Amino acid sequence: MRGGGIRVLRTIIARRAGFCFGVRRAVEAARSAAPAYTLGPVIHNPRVVAELAALGVLSADTPEAIPEGARAVVRSHGVGRDTLSRLEKRAGQVCDATCPFVARIHDMAREAESAGLPLIVVGEERHPEVEGIRGWTNCQSYAVADEAAAMALPAMERALVVSQTTFIAERFESVCAAIRARVREAQVRKTICPATRDRQQEAVRLAQSADVMLVVGGRESSNSRKLFELVGKVCPRSHFIEDAREIENTWFHPADLVGITAGASTPDCTIKEVAARMNDIEKQ
Ligand code: SF4
After folding, report:
1. Is the shortest distance between the CB of 97 and ligand 1 below 6 Å?
2. Which residues are catalytic?
3. CB-CB neighbours of 70 under 10 Å
4. 225-281: per-residue pLDDT in tens?
């Protein structure tokens, strides 16, 4: 925080830090379905995954790895058509907690398939959400994470373009510009979800006025890492932490304003512990 005078350390927590609606819904669905199996961890947060495991919600890598007749939960990332049908054959009951914002993109993939259009997903090729989206079309599909990957696409007459829900809005525009250089008629659908967009915008605003930013999230959480990337551009003293134990006193000066934000898969209890730890540091 700029300006003179003597001030103590202050902390502001972003209003949109922590679980988004889709993640909260999937975690609740997994809790209610216990004992059950999910394909991959419900969310990228080790603490929540451990709590769910204690209730009997376990992760399997493939539908065939789930014991026959067991209950299965589809996490918020969703799965492709073939995976869903294998899951339905294997499990006794399937609880589909695909986030509605992701399900909407599955519909678009089906639409592309019906129209015979190639599908381009702007996002991380190996991210389960991107794999799931591509699994709803039998037409040619591509995943592009940046401009270089877009420029490497084959030349196409037409294509439908969507994005991973947690992609960074600004980068989506620049990747789309590169896609347009390869696709004569690119139909672009803006599918970054509102929860991601609002969280990213608020985090950047907070980072603009903060001296130090703490981004709380699981190391494997794609949306938390993107949040860290965004705030790091405007606040050089930004730190990515998984929990309160990682916070070091040496990161702060007495007059600092500290902003805290958290990814969509960070539980409230972890954010509260970070706030409590900052409270202790403020009192020192
Ligand atoms: Fe749904 Fe958006 Fe949350 Fe993903 S980040 S689960 S799309 S609300």
Report:
1. no
2. 129
3. 15
4. 999 999 999 999 999 999 999 999 999 998 899 999 999 999 999 999 999 999 998
Burial 109-133 (b: 16+ CB within 10 A, else e): bebbbeeebbbbbbbbeebbbbbbb
How buried is 61 (Cβ within 10 angstroms: 0-12 exposed, 13-18 middle, 19+ buried)?
A: exposed
pTM of this prediction exceeds 0.70: yes
Q: Which helix (H) or strand (E) holds 261?
A: strand 257-262
Residue of 162, 239, 234, 174 whose CA lies nearest to 202: 234
Tell me the Cα Rg of the chain: 21
Q: What confidence category does residue 3 fall into, taking pLDDT thresholds of 50, 70 and 90?
A: very low
Question: Which ligand 1 atom is nearest residue 21's CA?
Answer: 8
Q: How many angstroms from the chain centroid is the CA of residue 40? A: 14
